[in-house]
Amino acid sequence: LAKTTQPISMDSYEGQEVNITCSHNNIATNDYITWYQQFPSQGPRFIIQGYKTKVTNEVASLFIPADRKSSTLSLPRVSLSDTAVYYCLVGEGGSQGNLIFGKGTKLSVKP
Amino acid sequence: KAGVTQTPRYLIKTRGQQVTLSCSPISGHRSVSWYQQTPGQGLQFLFEYFSETQRNKGNFPGRFSGRQFSNSRSEMNVSTLELGDSALYLCASSLPDRGDTEAFFGQGTRLTVV
Questions:
Q1: Do A100 and B45 touch (CB under 8 A)?
Q2: Counting Cβ atoms within 10 Å, is residue A79 exposed (0-12), middle (13-18) or buried (19+)?
Q3: Model confidence over A19-46: pLDDT tens digits?
């Protein structure tokens, strides 16, 4: 499983767009990139997953450049409730049962 | 559909005791994984069960064990509890054989060892 590197923490203000970048230089051909969100004392929650280019859903966008060695999670117009830890994970298809979490990025949204 | 259910939510045990935690996956999910989360070590993978067989195992001592039943429900057991076993234990279920799916986590069981 590819190792990921992401910032330890980020601060933002309500209404701003937040971009969290994750590096995964050793990503393999079969690997997907997945982001999870975790609030204190709760289990992580799936946000978005992608393989290449751009993926968008109702809560976020995921940008993946052609070389796939990094990815950027974009949260549009964050609110206080988006304060959480965000984890970037890289793994091959079928590895959802064996997730390797890094330290994650603690996002703090201020009023 | 119902999510992943973990019981109990909170537990207090004494050093040396053993504990059993339970996890009911989402209907149709055959893979159940367990994770330990502590402030110091973060989220760490314990083991994965698929069709009643342990498929993957993390780097934890043999005091940590688990099993999965034919209905995919899973239990994990920790014997001879130590203070350092105090943690949030999370269970996740998934459809493991597709690349474009996700793991669904339960709310966790907060274990405190005193």
A1: yes
A2: exposed
A3: 999 999 999 888 889 999 999 989 999 9
